[in-house]
Amino acid sequence: MTTDRQSAYGHWIGGAWQAPGQGHYPVVNPATEETVGHAPEAAEADVDAAVRAARAAYDGWSRTAPRERAAVLDRVAALLAERSPDLVPLLQAETGATLRVTSALQVPPAVDRFRRYARGAVEPDTLPLAPLPVAATPLAAGGLIGAAAVRRPLGVVACITSYNFPLANLAGKVAPALAMGNTVVAKPAPQDPLCCLELGPLLKEAGLPDGAFNVVTGSRAVVGEALVAHPGVDMVSFTGSTTVGRKIAESAGRSMKRTLMELGGKGAAIVLGDADERVIASAVGAVGSTFSFHSGQICTAPTRVLVHRSLYEKVIAALTHYARSLKIGDPVDNSTIVGPLISAAQRDRVEAYLAGAREQGARVVVGGERPALTPGFYAAPALVADADPAMAIAQEEVFGPVVVALPFDDEDEAVRIANGTPYGLYDYVFSADAGRAWSLAARLRSGNVGINTVQRHPETPFGGFKDSGVGRDGGSFGLHAYSELQSVVWVS
């Protein structure tokens, strides 16, 4: 571990720290506005060195026995768990997440993902196909032809991650990529890359060969652009905004790179008219997680609540009470529920959306004013009612503690509103009739649907429809995402 966090980190390339080509930039604590540490600013030569290191390591790692790969990933999980007391304070400082979110939902999921894909490394990668009699052709003699479909590693994978869950998100990409025999160049979000850099020496200690995992960082867009465009990269796995995702897709398409992209969301929580008190309470708690969970900086958040008109004012009142009950403040205080946003720019963006909603005639029921907390980039939980579904506040991803409430009269209208944004990542249905909710889920253009819960299932395929992304990961689907299918055919 780096002992002095005010010191300047290097890039992690080829199993060692490397001095950056463009110096360093400060990583700022969103709660204190103080410098946590200095991250390396990459030049294109640094990116090239990282990709070359990954390419050099690929042949050896891809041919390593699956059980050996599994053992390395298991050791990574054990080391992450062991180092959690050191990693949690650093993660908390650079992300601004509350201590309870950091300790429960930053490091532990990273541990779980490396452990899960240690098992994944030894999952069967060959699907035998029944032999078939094939008639002779001018190309070849006939006979009984056998075949198999085999998953093969892709090569060098560029993993570009988001700022909200830097370590967990990176682990969710790196673990299945390494399990399949790929090598990795990681490019964390510029706001909080330090724990991702700390992962480099930890993986080396676990026995990963030098060059199989590399990390380059930078505050400028040119770093990610150089990585995506590099001819030595075979696949790009990206989590972030749809705007950046489009640029990555365009660049990757020029050289036919494989892509896996988990992009923005504008989740709809539909509360049907049959919801009883228990279901309404569940819905309010679920929607309220947009206020209370990492200040709404999560792509799967139910940021729109669509409520049957008969229950609309009741749900508005309950959400208003919920939002007002949440303590905003210092994220290291265990009584704090709502911490800061990641940056001043993101706080200003959230405030601009709320101001725009007011100007367009929506009603900001609660929130909308900047909390009297300094320093720090704080935004109060906000509930917006009486918005038109076409307003920006109801169409675009805000990525803050903001919920928009919209009434509907029947299921057809609810489906039209829910499907009426460019996104389709995660929607929710709340009903006293689970069968009815199941049927409604089939009409939602969304990659994921929760019925009466916002809980996730770790083995499900995760990804979005429409502008919310391309491809799926999670569970065994993650192994599929980081591999190519090869058909092997022979004469039986």
From TrEMBL:
Signal peptide positions on this chain: none
One Pfam family of this chain: Aldedh
Top-level division of the source organism's lineage: Bacteria
SUPFAM superfamilies reported for this sequence: ALDH-like
Oxidoreductase found in the keyword field: yes
Keyword Oxidoreductase: yes
InterPro entries recorded: Ald_DH/histidinol_DH, Ald_DH_C, Ald_DH_N, Aldehyde_DH_dom
Domain Aldehyde dehydrogenase: 17-488
Keywords annotated in UniProt: Oxidoreductase
Similarity remark: Belongs to the aldehyde dehydrogenase family.
PANTHER family in UniProt: ALDEHYDE DEHYDROGENASE, ALDEHYDE DEHYDROGENASE-RELATED
Name used for this protein in its record: Aldehyde dehydrogenase family protein
Organism per entry: Streptomyces coffeae
Lineage of origin: Bacteria, Bacillati, Actinomycetota, Actinomycetes, Kitasatosporales
